[in-house]
Specification:
The protein has about 375 residues and is α/β, with parallel strands linked by helices. The protein is about 40% helix and about 20% strand. The chain folds into two domains: about 10-135 and about 320-350, ATPase, nucleotide binding domain (Nucleotidyltransferase, domain 5, 2-Layer Sandwich); about 145-315, 2-Layer Sandwich (Nucleotidyltransferase, domain 5), CATH 3.30.420.
Amino acid sequence: MKRTDVNARPQIVLGIETSCDETAAAIVARYGDGHGEILSEQVYSQVKDHAPYGGVVPEIAARAHVAIIDRIIGEVVQKSGVLLSEIDGVAATGGPGLIGGVLVGLTTAKAIAYALSCPLLVINHLEGHALTARLTNDVNFPYFLLLVSGGHTQILQVNGIGKYVRLGTTLDDALGEAFDKTAKLLGLGYPGGPEVERWARSGDPEKFHFPRPFIGTDHAHFSFSGLKTALRRKALSLSPLSDQAVSDLCSSFQAAAFDVVCDRLDRAISGLAVQGINHTCNTLVVAGGVAANLEMARRLSDVKELCGIDIIIPPARLCTDNGVMIAWAGAERLALGLVDNLETPARARWPLDPQAPVASGAGVKA
């Protein structure tokens, strides 16, 4: 993206993301009126490194980050046309995520911030997802957030930078995790989510009736472990599986999963009105890797009609893990003076709403 106002001096932030199996960096500019631009971005995927194992191996991921991170950062600086001396802040994911990978990115950011004598911004990975739509679509606070990734599935109300109210969370598997495990069970390869979506396109979503956990309940929490188990039992009963059976299983799984998502969203949003809470939100932002699923985007139109709410999904490349979201979250925090010191630790777990009541059975995924 090109700069739109060469006369205004924006704040320029370098962002680094290494929480899982992508090594990513980006440079963004944030102008005084709050709008931003992507000056450069780069993502190195480790898919080939982890594919033989059917999932991310933390030790392999951390070593890969170490091997590539300097080059990725060098490339985004060169492509941006920005001098290192012009960088106003360095942001990096500080968690949650695989702690080895988080340490690589955060330590690198600390070193750069120290060398440049500029502020360090330690970013909650989930906040990066939560704020992306403010860069891409100029969304104003407050808004609802559906966060659907490999590690988290939550519904939150986003009231401002660092101001999040959790309305619902998964009590077991995250939705992306359920997709990945389904793909592994069916032998579809890694990463699993896109493979399940691809096979589902030629399947019958009504061929198999899988459970829809929690549909109709008063709370807004999720559960996907029972759905995953039901699919496994059905797949075993049909073994050996034909290609059509695999497609039907994937399509029926998706239909059940997205029925749950739509019901939980309706429950969370409508439930506030039932409780007499005037939330003033008229937008739902969808973020995280599963947000790139086109069938889910289509199904969310039901939620739009039911709840009378606009739905915004950032570009697919900014839904999965990326450096842009970390740089932008850093720019948003820098504008408010919310900077961190060099002693700020990495965290394997870091909830967006630490004051949320304990969801029975959710454990660390809350």
